[in-house]
Design a protein that fits this description.
The protein is an alpha/beta fold. Helix content is 28%, strand content 17%. The protein is globular and about 75 Å long.
């Protein structure tokens, strides 16, 4: 039995927390509601700093395994793998925590409450923080989020390995530059259909210990004081039993950015009264006066503290050392050989092969004497790690990975090509000061690898970006600076060119799609990323990643960045043809599907099971992502929606039976009131290795299998069509 299933033990923790809180003065209580909670020595309570990060590895606290950025992890479409990654992260977290405690280090980024994962929907490719997420699809985000939460929190019956936090509640995806004053206006249909499912899954399936409120408002109400979401839906309808933390400085925004309050006391009271328990910031210090002025009941502060101390008890940080089995995890697990091996394997599974004309890839190292590796991301460590990163003991850039893989057998020539976004590399040089070097390297090379893209200095959180892009968001989807010219120069050489993109978001590489024979999307692949990409280039590994986001052709086809309606956004609602569609990715081998069937052609209360036999019909072992989509045959319904995934790995000639369950909810549609409705009529269940769109079919040469099912008529007392499910009370 896992801790979150052990309700009797949790009740004991809560009673113990109540008894502890009852002994505190108001001043002591208030001090415990901020993230840097001081010690209360008379009660035996140690100081604790709640702020820690683990987006893709233990961050900001020294050496740790730096796994691929979240968007890359999402490209695996593998819930079991991401749980394995998160379990490795929490293992390192405990090893580091145990060492830090022994050394008396209790500072920021040294606790066990990790403010990860980010399960916001990557609705617009311009958003700078999109690479922190699991992509644009609510189902995929839900599965990845649940896997991550389970891996972080562990499966012990008495203790959490670490505490995960689903962020940012709940309608939050830019623009970064106005996030402290922005009001995200969203309809109830989009809210329940797109923005909330991952939070619901993390709460009800993952039993996530915490959720974090966002900076912006939702329909006029600050996210960190949104009673309808935090109290009525999360706690009331969904049974959330953990604590709510504000984003850092978000409560101060109430009076300084949103102007919904006038004073710090009012802001603190508004957040506390509406469900926020912990302040990343300083505003909750004003709760002492707010309680004395009658703006907040002290019993509400007690309630918040019971939730907070219950979390600390679940972690075992208030117990004697040695009572918790996780106390025995040694620091030596950190950055160990098994961690590095896992990191390399995961990095390879994240890579998406976008184009492979004439089977240029994999390269045959025996037929190559000289290879050119060109571009600003070829030897960039920053392009490996994304943001919210830890510190690796060793980084393998793409250039270093290729050099290591080829050794002395093949000459490797290199050129930075251009600056990532400026028009020259040296301050006093002329524009394009490395172009002659690019041409020279290409002339001497048998094949050229061009490494372009972005890094977390060009796309990231407001304040993290340190260039002319400023806010952290992208102004467009183009390659910055002179990168396009470098690519065209390489192609003009007449040598075979492979484009490796390192970025955390979609880029409109239309010219490359027409002129470059092979294109790889490597994301921010982590500290071992260069080695993994080298192994893929030369066929030691087989690419298996799929796109968790749509690659658009131009930013002009997108709605306004501040428009939070899903109309025209993502594969579910877009009308134009994608450059590279969601769910798309090529392989070095091939797969076939047959014996595709349903256990019933009528949707029942138990849902439907879809089965298929998948065979590796190629000559190389590889992984296939079996994808199941549902299309409701009804006007106004989404194009189609991902509702099932299964990863299978097959040797050449190997065949496996795959079975995926679709619950009844997979066939529902949300109405304008945010209610899940089941309408009489037809639906399609579509299974294959990609999304069911013409562009995917053209790019892969493969067709999905479509089966029709019936939604039966169901009687309703009010005579309306459809049956309502999961009806929100107030939203």
């Amino acid at each position: 039995m896992e801790l979150n299933e052990n309700q009797e033990l949790i009740a004991q923790y809560r009673e113990r927390a109540k008894a502890l809180v009852a002994q505190m003065s108001l001043e002591e209580k208030v001090e415990q509601t901020v993230y840097y909670a001081p010690a209360i020595e008379r009660l035996g309570i140690k100081a604790y700093n709640w702020w820690n990060e683990a987006l893709h590895g233990v961050a900001r606290a020294g050496i740790a395994t730096v796994f691929p950025q979240s968007i890359g992890l999402a490209a695996t479409f593998d819930e079991e793998l991401i749980e394995k990654v998160a379990d490795a992260i929490s293992t390192e977290a405990r090893g580091k925590f145990n060492m830090q405690q022994a050394q008396g280090d209790i500072g920021i980024y040294k606790g066990l409450t990790f403010w990860s994962p980010n399960v916001n929907i990557f609705r617009d490719p311009r958003w700078g923080r999109g690479h922190e997420t699991f992509g644009e699809d609510p189902y995929l985000t839900s599965r990845m989020g649940v896997g991550f939460v389970k891996g972080i929190q562990g499966h012990d019956g008495h203790y959490l390995k670490a505490a995960a936090c689903a962020k940012h509640v709940a309608v939050h995806s830019g623009p970064e530059g106005i996030r402290h004053s922005f009001d995200a206006v969203v309809g109830k249909q989009d809210l329940y259909e797109t923005y909330l499912p991952a939070f619901k899954a993390c709460i009800q399936e993952g039993h996530v210990e915490a959720v974090m409120g966002a900076y912006n408002r939702i329909n006029g109400v600050p996210c960190c004081a949104n009673k309808e979401l935090l109290e009525d839906v999360f706690r009331g309808q969904w049974g959330f039993q953990g604590h709510v933390v504000s984003d850092c400085g978000a409560i101060q925004d109430f009076h300084e950015g949103h102007h919904v309050t006038d004073t710090p006391e009012e802001s603190a009271a508004m957040a506390m009264n509406n469900g926020c328990d912990l302040n990343c910031g300083h505003m909750f210090h004003f709760l002492k006066q707010a309680v004395r002025d009658g703006m907040v009941e002290e019993s509400r502060v007690d309630e918040a503290l019971v939730a907070l101390f219950t979390t600390r008890m679940k972690l075992g940080v208030l117990d004697e050392k040695g009572e918790n089995p996780y106390d025995r995890i040694p620091y030596s697990v950190v950055d160990s050989a098994p961690m590095q091996k896992l990191n390399r394997e995961v990095a390879a599974k994240c890579v998406v092969l976008l184009k492979n004309e004439g089977n240029l890839l994999p390269l045959d190292k025996k037929s190559i004497k000289t290879i050119g590796v060109i571009g600003p991301n070829a030897n960039s460590r920053r392009a490996l790690v994304g943001n919210y990163e830890g510190t690796a003991s060793r980084y393998w850039t793409v250039l270093e990975g290729i050099q290591e893989y080829l050794g002395e057998d093949v000459r490797v020539l290199a050129s930075e090509g251009c600056h990532l976004y400026h028009d020259r590399l040296e301050g006093c040089a002329e524009k394009g000061d490395r172009f002659s070097e690019v041409r020279g390297v290409c002339d001497l090379s048998d094949v050229v690898v061009v490494c372009l893209g972005l890094d977390a200095g060009l796309e990231g959180e407001q304040g993290d970006a340190n260039n002319e892009y400023g806010s952290g968001d992208k102004p467009d989807l183009n390659l910055p600076g002179l990168q396009q010219e470098v690519l065209e120069t390489a192609c003009a050489s007449g040598k075979p060119v492979i484009l490796v993109l390192l970025s955390g978001s979609a880029l409109a590489v239309n010219w490359a799609d027409e002129h470059v024979p092979a294109i790889i999307q490597g994301w921010y692949p982590g500290a071992q990323g260069g080695l993994a990409i080298a192994q893929l280039l030369f066929g030691e590994r087989c690419p298996e990643g799929k796109l968790p986001v749509t690659f658009y052709r131009t930013v002009e086809e997108l709605p306004d960045f501040t428009d939070y309606s899903m109309k025209g956004r993502t594969y579910r609602y877009m009308q134009n043809e994608a450059l590279y569609p969601f769910g798309y990715g090529l392989s070095y081998t091939s797969f076939s599907y047959d014996n595709v069937r349903l256990d019933t052609d009528t949707v029942t209360e138990k849902g439907i099971n879809v089965s298929a036999a998948v065979e590796n019909t190629g000559r190389m072992s590889g992984g296939e992502t079996v994808q199941v989509y549902v299309k409701i045959c009804r006007e106004g319904a989404p194009n189609y929606q991902l509702k099932g995934i299964k990863k299978v790995h097959l040797a050449p000639g190997e065949r496996k039976e795959v079975k995926i369950h679709l619950p009844k909810e997979a066939f529902g549609l949300y109405d304008e009131d945010g209610r899940l409705c089941f309408h009489e009529g037809k639906a399609q269940v579509i299974i294959g290795g990609q999304a069911p769109d013409p562009r995917s079919e053209k790019l892969t040469g493969r067709k999905d299998t479509r089966l029709e099912v019936t939604m039966p008529a169901e009687s309703r007392a009010d005579g309306r069509a459809g049956v309502l499910y999961d009806m929100p009370e107030k939203l």
